[in-house]
From TrEMBL:
GO cellular component, one term: apical plasma membrane
Gene for this chain: SLC12A1
Claim: Transmembrane helix is one of the keywords in the record: yes
This protein's record includes keyword DNA repair: no
A biological process from GO: chloride ion homeostasis
Catalysed transformations (reactions): K(+)(out) + 2 chloride(out) + Na(+)(out) = K(+)(in) + 2 chloride(in) + Na(+)(in)
Annotated transmembrane regions: 172-200, 221-241, 261-280, 289-310, 338-359, 371-396, 450-473, 506-526, 532-550, 562-585
InterPro entries with a match to the protein in the record: AA-permease/SLC12A_dom, AA_permease_N, SLC12_C, SLC12A1/SLC12A2, SLC12A_fam
Name of protein: Solute carrier family 12 member 1
PANTHER family, alphabetized: SOLUTE CARRIER FAMILY 12 MEMBER 1 (PTHR11827:SF93), SOLUTE CARRIER FAMILY 12, CATION COTRANSPORTERS (PTHR11827)
Gene Ontology MF, one: sodium:potassium:chloride symporter activity
Record family assignment: Belongs to the SLC12A transporter family.
Species annotation: Electrophorus electricus (Electric eel)
């Protein structure tokens, strides 16, 4: 044999031939010669340790490899040393057409569906299907333009645009409009890329974000976006109500007061709109041409009115010509700032998602959304700029409306440019005036050539936009609820009628709208909408950036005019604008979004949309794995990476639960299954098992992977798993398997395969952990019986339902036929589970189920007894320590049992205490056993001999020829020579079992060093007999053997 020693403290170890092979203390401790070493501190030192020489324990190959003919070991002459050498190295649901796509539903093109619905709105996509052919043709010709004009110009155009330019001036006012267009254009580019990267269904921004970033982001922003659309209804209705109340005021018909009148008119209006939404929209289709004419005339009326010479009445109200210079600079009042004014105006630009909101109702959303949205943004911007500049060039900020407020001859007047036209409005410095850009929201009516036409245009714009938002919010909310991300909201997913109308969503939107209508202040409602829409836009931009950054092969948008960095800039811009407008509202919005994100993350909805989050997670995982591969393993970072031979995971729950306790969420755990048989025949079952078992692991919250192979026999399959499992540094280093309890009754080949797997694991330098529970581990027969009973109950229930539907008379004959079959199946199942020894089998099954679930429960106060007999690198000690850090095992204390040399028990105990202290592992007691070499009781010897009797060759009682013939016929049997050669080792296993029963009978778990069977020397059945004798009649036992490379260190 060879041992190792250092020439100098800092020199690497060298091999040296020596006349002895083992230390005397090992011989006296175990009673027979062995290369195994007892635990020793010198095995854990660095190569350059100055506090003591570093010893090198026997390698796994030395303990496991075949003896050479001369009796020496086949050991390599060189060996790398140093610290490093001693350390272990779905079906695509999106492709299914929704019910809305069936016949009876009209689809829109880009003009009708997107361009015409782009400003704050979502077109009602279900026109009257009973139109005559002539009406339908007329609709196709005229409706696109009609809907476009109706929805581009919203409430801000007629009743707030003049106020915005009065506060900000025409200079900053232009910047406000351009900034809004920049935000919406960048978002439109991102949205276009996402929309053209696959089939787009209904749901608007929610659909785009959820399918791009996943349900966590999509679910949170979906609620916010639907809520924003519901609040938009209130904004448009309040704008309509303001115009109505102004008319009432002019005609001296105020009902209560201005604020309460807005509330009354608003509530009545939203009730009427709700009725229209639920009842139908035939009237709207017929009124499109008239509404378009009104809007076009109203806009033209503004431009014409600015060119008509002002009357004295208009001049008194501040209407002049060529006053652009005075209104160019800002004049913020009442605490307003640039960004607060921007927040009030921005809802005018939020209609860019209108086309996306009805994506499910478009003929070609991929083509319609980009062109329709971009064109709508352009038309919107030009229209707003043109009207705003005309008004700011003709109306002063303040005017009294009093014809007598003229300049007195000889008096000085420098209040405003009105002085140049003979009017003195200086009283407006101290008294709030009623007219001018800053005071009169109905400036457009005064500027226009015919005021009532502007009022009619305001009515048509606000009502149509409010109606569109009232349709949009429930549609988005219904799409969210259909995905069942928030199970409590699934109630709102139900639709009604052939168009699947979200009636329940309408009612909810109505309630939200009424609540905000009661605020009765447009300047308060508008910033709330701005905040929510900006959050939605930020996530749309980020979705495009994220998808581009992930570089997933599935990201192939047909729309090419986008840039990932522009999208990121757009997202940052939206967030920045949110915080500048109102920092606490922005924080509140993101707090709500984060709460919803965490909620969805914790609940883990059963959806898989192939989001960019998944793609980035994959990319990060690959990069981290590659980074990890470039770093050498270190003993301080060692953790058990387990490959668990469970078969189907649910059939051996105790084995899986114990492995999960070891790896928890911090280590690799791979549950493995071998399908025995030809690969082609097993392929279908293997493929199905991969998905089912991984899903089962996820449902059981087991952080483990499932791997399976098909092979001609169990050993070859396990060998494939041992060699191929893992990736880079993420490779298993420990095999966990169950003890083969039926080894005495199965075929010899099965035993040989099982022991062969152990040999293969040692050859591949795996540590081995073997679990034995006296009741057994496999509960597959119980699960099969339960599944059969459940299947029969389902059949019986289906039969009863069929009889109820078809009537007893029709189903009577079938009933008796099926009942007879079910009775036979039920009887057969009962026989297998209850007779002929029903009570015995039931008790055995009950005990087996209880034993299989024992590691799921929290272990009470008790001990984990560690019999650390051989130094295997420290795995035998590390595993119980890891268990005590888990919540279920936290109340258990460690007790350590070691082998000692007679006469040196106290010294061995002190050495172990010192070693454990250096390892920082606490234990309640250390027991040194010195009587391993005492012969076991004759009763145990007799039981062992009876156990191996069927597997003995008994060649000693035969002549040479007969003995040779028996060896050839039964090469696997235990020979007399083998028994004699390993008598001491057999005695050790029997004696160790006696000690376990004496000292550890009350332990919650026993962990004991696993004996190694040398290849070619120890027969498979003798080795199984050793394991059987060692672990019988004791609590749950783990046989552990590391790969003899250090997994513990006391260095920092």
């Amino acid at each position: 044999y060879r041992i190792y020693k250092h020439l100098q403290p800092n020199d690497p170890p060298l091999y040296e031939e020596t006349p002895f092979s083992i230390r005397p203390s090992v011989v006296s401790a175990f009673g027979h010669d062995t290369l195994d070493r007892v635990p020793n501190i010198d095995f854990y030192r660095n190569a350059g340790s100055v506090s003591g020489h570093r010893a090198i324990r026997p390698s796994l190959q030395e303990l496991h490899e075949v003896f050479e003919k001369n009796g020496d070991l086949d050991v390599h002459d060189t060996m790398d040393d140093g610290e490093g050498s001693d350390v272990l190295p779905n079906d695509d649901l999106e492709a299914i057409a929704s019910p809305e796509d069936n016949g009876g539903v009209v689809k829109f093109g880009w003009i009708k569906g997107v361009l015409v619905s782009v400003t704050h709105s979502h077109i009602r996509s279900k026109p009257d299907l009973n139109f005559t052919k002539t009406m339908a043709e007329s609709w196709v010709l005229f409706s696109p333009k009609v809907r476009c004009m109706l929805n581009i110009w919203g409430v801000m155009l007629f009743i707030r645009l003049s106020w915005v330019f009065g506060q900000a001036g025409s200079g900053l006012g232009i910047i406000i409009i351009i900034l809004s267009m920049v935000v919406t254009t960048l978002t439109c580019l991102s949205m276009s890329a996402i929309c053209t990267n696959g089939v787009v269904r209904g749901g608007g921004a929610y659909y785009l974000i959820s399918r791009s970033l996943g349900p966590e982001f999509g679910g949170s922003i979906g609620l916010i976006f639907a809520f924003a659309n519901a609040v938009a209804v209130a904004m448009y209705v309040v704008g309509f109500s303001e115009t109505v109340v102004d008319l009432l005021k002019v005609n001296d018909a105020i009902m209560v007061d201005e604020v309460n009148d807005i509330r009354i008119v608003g509530c009545i209006t939203v009730v009427l709109l709700l009725g229209i939404s639920v009842a139908g929209m035939e009237w709207e289709a017929k009124a499109q041409i008239a509404l378009l004419v009104i809007l076009l005339l109203a806009i033209a009326n503004v431009f014409v009115g600015t060119a008509i010479p002002a009357t004295e009445e208009k001049r008194a109200k501040g209407f002049y010509t060529s006053i652009m210079a005075e209104n160019f600079t800002p004049n913020f009042r009442d605490g307003e700032t640039f960004f607060s004014v921007f927040a009030i105006f921005f809802p005018a630009a939020t209609g860019i998602l209108a086309g996306a909101n009805i994506s499910g109702d478009l003929k070609d959303p991929q083509g319609a959304i980009p062109i329709g949205t971009l064109l709508a943004i352009f038309i919107t911007g030009i229209t707003y700029l043109g009207i705003a500049l005309c008004v700011s060039a003709t109306v002063v900020r303040d005017a009294t409306g009093n014809l007598n407020d003229t300049i007195t001859p000889g008096a000085k007047c420098n209040f405003s440019v009105a002085c140049n036209f003979g009017y003195d409005f200086s009283i407006c410095r101290t008294t709030k005036c009623q007219y001018g850009l800053m005071n009169n929201f109905q400036v457009m009516t005064m500027v226009s050539g015919f005021g009532p036409l502007i009022t009619a245009g305001t009515f048509s714009a606000t009502i149509s936009s409010a109606l569109a938002s009232l349709v949009s919010a429930p549609k988005v909310f219904q799409a969210l609820c259909k995905d069942n991300i928030y199970k409590a909201l699934h109630f709102f997913a139900k639709g009604h009628g052939k168009n699947n109308e979200p009636i329940r969503g309408y009612v909810l939107t109505f309630v939200i709208a009424v609540a905000f209508i009661l605020i009765a202040e447009l300047n308060i409602i508008a910033p709330i909408i701005s905040n929510f829409f900006l959050a939605s836009y930020a996530l749309i931009n980020f979705s495009c950036f994220h998808a581009s950054y992930a570089k997933s092969p599935g990201w192939r948008p047909a729309y090419k005019y986008y840039n990932m960095w522009l999208s990121l800039f757009g997202a940052v811009l939206c967030c920045a604008v949110m915080f500048v407008i109102n920092w606490w509202a922005a924080l509140l919005t993101y707090a709500i979004e984060m709460f919803l994100y965490i909620y969805v993350t914790v609940k883990k909805p059963d959806v898989n949309w192939g989001s960019s989050t998944q793609a980035v997670t994959f990319v990060n995982a690959v990069n981290n794995a590659l980074t990890l591969s470039g770093v050498d393993d270190h003993v301080k970072n060692f953790r058990p990476q387990c490959i668990v031979l469970t078969g189907t995971p649910k059939t051996r729950p105790a084995l899986l639960d114990l492995a999960h306790s070891i790896t928890k969420n911090y280590g690799l755990c791979i549950t493995c299954d071998v399908f025995v048989g030809p690969r082609l025949e097993q392929q279908q079952a293997l493929t199905a098992a991969m998905e089912q078992n991984q899903m089962w692991l996820n449902q059981q919250k087991r952080k483990a992977f499932y791997a399976a192979v098909a092979s001609d026999n169990f050993r070859e399959g396990a060998e494939s798993l041992l060699q191929a499992s893992g990736l880079g540094r993420l490779r298993p280093n420990t095999v966990i398997l169950g003890f083969k309890r039926d080894w005495k009754t199965v075929y010899t080949a099965n035993v040989q395969e099982y022991v062969g797997v152990l040999h293969d694991a040692f050859d591949f330098e795996y540590g081995i952990v073997m679990l034995r529970i006296s009741q057994g581990l496999d509960i597959s027969h119980i699960l099969e019986a339960e599944e059969e009973m459940e299947r029969m109950l389902v059949e019986q229930q289906a039969l009863e339902n069929e009889i109820e539907e078809n009537g007893f008379q029709e189903g009577r004959k079938y009933f008796f036929k099926r009942s007879r079959k079910l009775s036979q199946k039920t009887h057969a199942t009962k026989v297998t589970m209850e007779v002929p020894h029903s009570s015995d089998v039931a008790k055995i099954n009950q005990r087996l189920v209880e034993a299989s679930s024992q590691f799921k429960r929290k272990q009470g106060k008790g001990t984990i007894d560690v019999w650390w007999l051989y130094d295997d690198g420290g795995l035998t000690l590390l595993l119980p320590y890891i268990l005590t850090t888990r919540k279920k095992w936290r109340e258990c204390k460690l007790r350590i049992f070691i082998a000692g040399q007679p006469g040196h028990l106290e010294q061995d105990k002190e050495e172990m205490q010192s070693l454990l202290k250096k390892f920082r592992i606490k234990c309640t007691d250390i027991t040194v056993i010195a009587d391993f070499n005492i012969r076991p009781s004759s009763e145990n010897w007799k039981l062992f001999e009876d156990m191996i009797e069927p597997y003995r060759l008994h060649e000693g009682s035969k002549d040479t020829a007969q003995a040779e013939a028996l060896r050839k016929e039964h090469p696997w049997k235990i020979t007399d020579a083998e028994l004699d050669r390993f008598e001491d080792k057999t005695s050790l296993q029997l004696r160790l079992n006696e000690l376990l029963q004496e000292s550890s009978r009350a332990a919650k778990l026993i962990i004991v060093s696993m004996p190694i069977a040398r290849k070619g020397s120890v027969s498979d059945h003798l080795y199984m007999a050793w394991l059987e004798a060692l672990t019988k009649n004791v609590p749950p036992t783990l046989l552990v053997r590391g790969n003899h490379k250090s997994v513990l260190t006391f260095y920092s």
